[in-house]
């Protein structure tokens, strides 16, 4: 795959500053899918909420690389709130996020 210098610079800036989105590498193919918008993630209820909530602080790749059970995702959310400064979630939003993550980023 030939990447232009400009594209490389954009990708590097995205990785370093989280501004250009995040990279998800598919192990079997040397394809970099950029998670720049909710549409880059699997369709489903809660997708927009997850994208905008979680990409406020860090690259979405940190999230989409993971495969966790609902319980472990719940622990991650608690950790985000208790240690990382994420705003506390109301029950409806929290469940929406957990449902989406557990459905699409579950353990193998
Ligand atoms: C207020 C900022 C903030 C928000 C909002 C936030 N995070 Fe984080 N998150 C962080 C910080 C800071 C780290 C890095 C913590 C570290 O590695 O010490 C992190 C790290 C992570 C990690 C990596 C854990 C690991 O194994 O290294 C995951 C997974 C994660 N966040 C998930 C989420 C999800 C899912 C959401 C949305 C529901 C979210 N975060 C929203 C601040 C935030």
Fold and architecture overview:
The chain is mainly alpha-helical and 108 residues long. The protein has one domain (5-104): Cytochrome c-like domain (Cytochrome Bc1 Complex, Chain D, domain 2, Orthogonal Bundle), CATH 1.10.760. It contains five helices and two strands. A two-stranded antiparallel ribbon has the order 1-2. Helix 4 (70-83) packs across helix 5. It is globular, with a radius of gyration of 15 Å. The chain binds heme C. Residues 53-54, 56-58, 62-63, 66, 76-77, 80, 84-86, 97 line the site of heme C. Heme C (HEC) binds next to helix 2, helix 3 and helix 4.
- Give the class from helix and strand content and strand pairing: mainly alpha
Heterogens? heme C
Quickly give the CATH architecture.
Orthogonal Bundle
Sequence of strands across the biggest β-sheet: 1-2
Task: State Rg.
Answer: 15 Å
Reported for the largest beta sheet, the result is:
2 strands, antiparallel
CATH topology: Cytochrome Bc1 Complex, Chain D, domain 2
Q: Which stretches are low in confidence, meaning pLDDT under 50 for 5 or more residues running?
A: 10-22, 25-32
What is the N-to-C succession of helices and strands? HEEHHHH
């Amino acid at each position: 795959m030939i990447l232009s210098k400009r594209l490389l610079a954009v990708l590097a800036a995205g990785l370093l500053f989280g501004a250009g989105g995040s990279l998800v590498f598919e192990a079997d193919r040397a394809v970099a899918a950029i998670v720049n918008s909710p549409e880059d993630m699997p369709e489903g209820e809660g997708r927009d909420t997850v994208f905008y909530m979680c990409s406020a602080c860090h690259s979405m790749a940190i999230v989409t690389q993971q495969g966790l059970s609902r319980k472990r995702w719940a622990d991650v959310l608690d950790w985000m709130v208790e240690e990382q400064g994420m705003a506390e979630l109301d029950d409806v939003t929290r469940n929406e996020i957990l449902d989406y993550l557990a459905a699409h980023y579950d353990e193998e």
